[in-house]
Amino acid sequence: MAMVTGADYLKRIAQLESTIWIDGEFVKGKSTEHPAFKAVLEAKASLYDMVLDDAHADILQASDKNANFSFEIPRTKADLTKRRKATQLWAQSTLGVLGRSPEYVNTMIAIMAGAKDFFAEDGKEYGESIQSIYERAVKNDYTFTHTFVNPSISRKPFYPDGESVEQPVAAKIIEENEKGVVIDGARLLATQGGITDELLVLPSAAFVDSDYLFGCTVPSDTEGLLFLSRPSFGKETQFDYPLSATLEEGDAVVVFDHVFVPWERVFMYRNEWLMSQLFARTGIEAFLLYQAANRQIVKTEWLLGVAQALVDTLNIGQHTHVQGKVSEVIVALEAMRGFVYSAETQAQANEYEIMVPKLEPLKASACYFQMTYARLIEIIQLLGASHFISAPSKKDFASPIAGRLERFMRGEYTSAKEKTKLLRLARDLSISEFGSRQMLYERYFFGDPVRVASGLYHFADCQKQKYVEWVQTFLKKMD
Ligand SMILES: Cc1cc2nc3c(=O)[nH]c(=O)nc-3n(C[C@H](O)[C@H](O)[C@H](O)COP(=O)(O)OP(=O)(O)OC[C@H]3O[C@@H](n4cnc5c(N)ncnc54)[C@H](O)[C@@H]3O)c2cc1C
């Protein structure tokens, strides 16, 4: 099988019998027909069709043509370049807005399999587990969501208050036998939870003992697995909500109600030392950030297009502060491109012969974009001002007031309808529920910005020291 069409993908997801609760209701029947999930699944299906399209095959298929690019383990810098182009091509078709296109988690599975010897340090069975998880994913062209954050009842850093042996809050191992382990408790937060083939569970960094340290995959319709999805921000009318209507992904709390996981699906188990090394030594941190930064480049290109289109349509480009605001978007775009090129040109093969982009610029890109995205959205708001509030709806244009709209709401060079389409798009990006969730996503999907910045501070320590010594040498000469 190896590479599926969009239709095959949808057929497979329709057969999943995941337990999903959304807005107080149990999702009955096919998720592919549910109003909360239908649109995003179709958007993902179109990504699979692109892979099989001859026009894109060179970029979107792995070099051996047996899988899509996300499963290819990069061995050379040319492989990285190809991966960058592929990620950006998929992102262009979803405007950089779809956070979880299949390659985000697939890449993690591929890189972990490439570094299977890392897991085998704890026993060869763990190396074999990650390898067979990878092979199954490639063979079936799977998609995953993932979860690695413990829910916390209080803001205590490592221990979720209310935890008890009988009723754990954070998902933990409560039993093990010769066949596998039993997990009970919850994790947050799985974007697209319940509507991907499988769920990747990574060991949580916030643990009190080894009961919380496990890495595994489970099919989304595993018995006892529940996805508590937030109410959908999706909308029906594409004219009024062009993004909410097409790219709303959903996010779910994941509950493990005595979920049994067979040993052959467990690739990390109760090993604190390996857990502490997982992200850096295998290379998955760099690859996750590399995927994210490439998607964010495309998203910034899209935002630049929206910003300039607003400037043209509202005819406000003569004001220097407006020019300055669009320039800020250009600066963000060039900065993001710079981070990626820096990471790519400084890439080095790791101990598993995986060509890993340099982590430091990518960590910097994560810090930068977590904060900058909010400013980019603010710029869209400042350019659009009250035009977003007065923008009419599709129904207005089909009503008796349409003529008045054409008279009062048109642009200098555009019809009222054309102008409204742009305003509704910019509005959906910047002030809708969907747009606000995008802001939270860019801030938090890789972790809390404060702690991500703190991670960079500590990671860059050796370089900081080098520059401190430079300054000290200079100071000595001043005596
Ligand atoms: C839209 C969206 C989608 C997501 N999708 C996924 C997904 O698919 N898979 C997944 O695993 N995760 C996902 N996440 C979760 C993401 O990983 C977490 O949001 C992130 O790790 C931060 O954790 P938290 O939300 O629990 O915030 P908290 O850790 O509770 O932080 C809340 C606030 O308290 C402060 N704070 C808390 N503790 C500390 C501390 N020790 N030191 C300093 N400040 C502190 C933070 O700075 C922050 O301001 C998603 C998040 C969002 C918003």
TrEMBL record:
Annotated HpaB/PvcC/4-BUDH C-terminal domain residues: 276-475
Keywords assigned by UniProt, alphabetized: FAD, Flavoprotein, Oxidoreductase
One example GO MF annotation: oxidoreductase activity, acting on the CH-CH group of donors
InterPro entries: Acyl-CoA_Oxase/DH_mid-dom_sf, AcylCo_DH-like_C, AcylCoA_DH/oxidase_NM_dom_sf, HpaB/PvcC/4-BUDH, HpaB/PvcC/4-BUDH_C, HpaB/PvcC/4-BUDH_N
All residue ranges annotated as the HpaB/PvcC/4-BUDH N-terminal domain in the record: 5-268
One matching Pfam family: HpaB_N
Domain of life assignment: Bacteria
Positions contributing to FAD binding: T191, D448, P449, V450, R451
EC number: 1.14.13.3
Protein's recorded name: 4-hydroxyphenylacetate-3-hydroxylase
Record lineage: Bacteria, Bacillati, Bacillota, Bacilli, Bacillales
